[in-house]
Amino acid sequence: MTQNLADTSRPAADATAHEAGAGADRGWWRDAVIYQVYPRSFADSNGDGMGDLPGIRGRLPYLRDLGVDAVWLSPFYASPQADAGYDVADYRAVDPMFGTLLDADGLIRDAHALGLRIIVDLVPNHSSDQHEWFQRALREGPASPLRDRYHFRPGKGGNGELPPNDWESIFGGPAWTRTENPDGTPGDWYLHLFAPEQPDFNWDSPAVANEFRSILRFWLDMGVDGFRIDVAHGLVKAPGLPDLGGADQLKLLGNDVMPFFDQDGVHEIYRGWRKILDEYPGQRIGVAEAWTPTVQRTANYVRPDELHQAFNFQYLGTSWDAAELRAVIDLSLDSMRPVDAPTTWVLSNHDVTRHATRFANPPGLGTQIRTPGDRALGLRRARAATLLMLALPGSAYVYQGEELGLPDVTDLPDEVRQDPSFFRQAGQDGYRDGCRVPIPWSGTEAPYGFGPTAGGPSWLPQPAEWAALSVEAQTGDPTSTLELYRSALAVRKARPDLGAGTGVEWLDAPEGTLAFRRGSFVCTVNTTGTPVRIPAPGRPLLTSAGADPETVDGQAVLAADSTDWWAV
Ligand code: NOJ
């Protein structure tokens, strides 16, 4: 067993560490491991059942010790929480349920002192319907100049009773909701690609563009190291908002450029933002959440004068299959090389079924899975998938709780669900609460250290089995998933050749397996359900399986569904 044998010592965290992480000359983000904190579910300092900024602040040393480089925080802004904070009412305020601006300031400062960077979420495609602009636009009626900051349109039909076009909301149902005029008569409609409580901004309005430049500066002045840009592909809509001409539009997502997604006009916005980011010291970055038809189109978002990274959702959607994985790895690396941007790798986030549960189920079920599947198999593959991800060149994203091997909670009762898509007809999402359950830290009774008091509340219920998966329960157990992550991140820090570069050298490997070299390092992956023998590539460094591969007559036996790291 080689876990825990890696040197876990880190340079003392200080301002220099913050300014000059690994590869700082080329950009710290190029090989960074970035940990996603979902504030509602990370740590609750005041016992109200909802995570908060002081809770996160108190747990920063855990993240430093885990070995990540940066922390991305999902939204904590003032919000009615119609979509768990992705409906922002005030972009410059912290919602009282999460704390105060002072808490945000303290969190950023503490993180920097620990050598961690902070990335905040920016939601520029839509605001909350409670945003002051939208409320005034409604109150002031059709003549309001603020209506131009959103997409208000008269309806079709004899009395305007039909939506202005046929677009559907990602969360299900029409993408339009009709307003009521101040005198009580039925009024114009407004566009919302997501929930009705999330009206889309009109990015042709100079007021919108100016406001977001100012919001960027507000948070950059607060010291944040970057932004994860929500729905980065959605800001610009095709002129005239043309009909799509068909039902089932969500199935089209990912295959074609839609009149509301991945329009070429978005790139001008990011070129402007890049200039602002570059004005600030310390390499501040922008990360695009851009669902595009192809990886090549994703690369457009990270051209040298645009953003720094874009999530690689094609990788997230790939099954546990050697040939498919190799194809998507090659495609991802090949697509990013011409624009000199790092590839990113991501397996889980707050919108998709956790990968331990995806891999526990048959392939092809998508990202809103409602069956637990074969848990042991899922965990074995999840651990192997993580070691593969962390051996690839580029930047990797870790979603809170995946380091504990958490499965999705697939049996949440309907009455506790909060995903807005769950309450609408036939949306793309709907079961995202399953990956948002508060994470277990310690103890034997819920909320397992998520909140300060045993028996206290948590906004979604945690399964009883999670006592055994807590940070406390896994710490020091060399077979635990938490120690696997700690060891892997320590090895990655000690061997910069893992994350660096833009390519891998594929080695011959039997069907169902992968083998590639990166400098003095080899990674082997067995995606099959049976052990496979290969010529031993070197000395075992780390394994996702229970024990190092057995070596017999120079042949290494790769365990079923495992990844091994080797020093050569
Ligand atoms: C993507 C976010 O990750 C998701 O949680 C949210 O519902 C939509 N964008 C809308 O903001």
Automatic annotation (TrEMBL):
Keywords carried by this UniProt record: Hydrolase
Pfam families reported for this sequence: Alpha-amylase (PF00128)
CDD domains linked: AmyAc_OligoGlu_TS
Molecular function as annotated in GO: hydrolase activity
Entry's family note: Belongs to the glycosyl hydrolase 13 family.
Source domain of life: Bacteria
Stated name of the protein: Glycoside hydrolase family 13 protein
Domain Glycosyl hydrolase family 13 catalytic: 36-436
Residue ranges the record marks as coiled coil: none
